[in-house]
Amino acid sequence: MTSSAIGAGAGPNAAAPARSTVAGGKVAVAAAVLALLLAAMDATVMGTVLPSVLSDVGGGSGGGYAWLVSGFMLAQVAGTPLAGWVADRLDDRILAVGSTLVFLGASVLAGVAGSFGVLVAARVLHGMAAGAIVVSSYVIVGRVFGPERRAKAQSMLSMVWGVAAVLGPVLGAAVTEAWGWRWVFFLNVPLCTFVVLAIVLALPKREAASGQQRSGFPAGEYLLVTGGSALVLVGLQGGELGLGTIGGVLAALAGLVALALVRRFGGGLVPRQILSRTPSAGAALATVGACVVMYATVTVLPVRLAASGTSTTQIAVVVGLAALGWVAGSAVTGGLVAKHGYRPSMLAGALALLISATLCATGELAWLAGTTAGIGTGAVTATTLALIQDQSPPEQLGVATSAATMLRNLGSAAGVNGIAALTAALATTSHQGQQNRAFWVLAAVVVVTVLAPAVAAPRRRTTTG
């Protein structure tokens, strides 16, 4: 196990440089957290500003507006593994600064967009940059704090997703109301500028990459990973994208076949331990399962509550509690993993998710269903990220982080679209209770994909570097 000290000096003369390096690392981490917050909020803000956008630039006919969200998600899938590969071979500052500058440029393009096509192009650039920002933020924090303090530090980053889920829609609505939807994107410009300056001036330079890290880019694996993931996402959104049910199913199946081939040909972009029967593979499965439950809950549950006459304010409270629960679950998890290993926090998160799915299925205590969904997702995703990073060699920290991020994106898409499709298939006009059966399926998903890996998770925390 390596030391987590940043720039530790060898004697009294090194004390001042060491303190300066530590201070610089903290500033860089703060910038990484801000960048992650911007990227995460950009993924949630579109739902709030969409009506104003469509009335201004068009695109509402024929369901084309779905590409404002789908284009972002698909581009994020393409950018994430590429960013992980780059992060393991170049100085962290190159990836962080480059992705933030692309995000800044995309924000300007979105703000000045005069047509729907230009706005979609801006959202695609946003997605590519956001995928890289997520990876670079986690990699910077992981390397600055080192293996011994990584779990606590990464739990802080996991909290950002819960904060973004609350702030994104709220700030988007407030800014749109005050200055118009374009300023939602223009406001990214000064914040991105600060991030770039802070990283360039404060982030300690990393040692040069080794000869092994300079190996060629695994283009075949990249096509399998990104193509398979994209096909799964397109298949899950087949109805919105005009593919129909059969087209969506065929696309999703083709994507799963491509992803299955990664196990045979992978290793350069997806660490082999995630593809084998290892604790990392269990953590990967649990990541997907937790995100399925979280996003299914905050997407479908509000629709059902609205249909039963629940006020908009009460629905907003349920969604807000889910986001705050994610923050709380992530915050507590870092200390638990550091002291007690992976299994306790994964088990606690799995049980919280099972409670949430059960409450959604029975239609009882919606506020508690939202809260436990957030707590469970925060606990599971923070723990699984720590496990995947801990079990990866230092030279593969980037690709390990990008794999965890991609799994979270796939789980989110499956939760939003899969449970909605299942609910629609089970619903009838005369039997409202049949809609709840979709959440019983969700409870089974928790048992198989989250609870089972949690039981098998290692008791003690170990690191490879």
Structural commentary:
- The protein contains 16 helices and no strands.
- The chain has about 475 residues and is mainly α.
- α1 runs antiparallel to α7, α4 packs across α5 (about 115-180) and α8 (about 220-235) runs parallel beside α15.
- Mean pLDDT is about 80; it is low at about 1-20 and about 430-435.
How many helices does DSSP assign? 16
Q: How many runs of DSSP E, i.e. beta strands?
A: 0
Strand content: under 5%
Low-confidence stretches: 1-20, 428-434
Alpha carbon gap, first and last residue: 5 Å
Biggest beta sheet summary: none
Q: What is the radius of gyration computed over CA atoms, rounded to a whole number of angstroms?
A: 21 Å
Tell me, briefly, the overall form. globular
How confident is the prediction overall: mean pLDDT?
78
Write the layout of secondary structure elements.
Blueprint: H1 15-44, H2 46-57, H3 66-87, H4 92-112, H5 116-179, H6 182-186, H7 188-202, H8 219-236, H9 244-265, H10 272-275, H11 279-307, H12 312-340, H13 342-362, H14 366-390, H15 397-426, H16 437-456
Helix pairs in contact: 1-5, 1-7, 2-5, 3-5, 3-8, 3-15, 4-5, 4-7, 5-12, 5-14, 5-15, 8-9, 8-15, 11-12, 11-13, 11-14, 11-15, 11-16, 12-13, 12-14, 13-14, 13-16, 14-15, 15-16
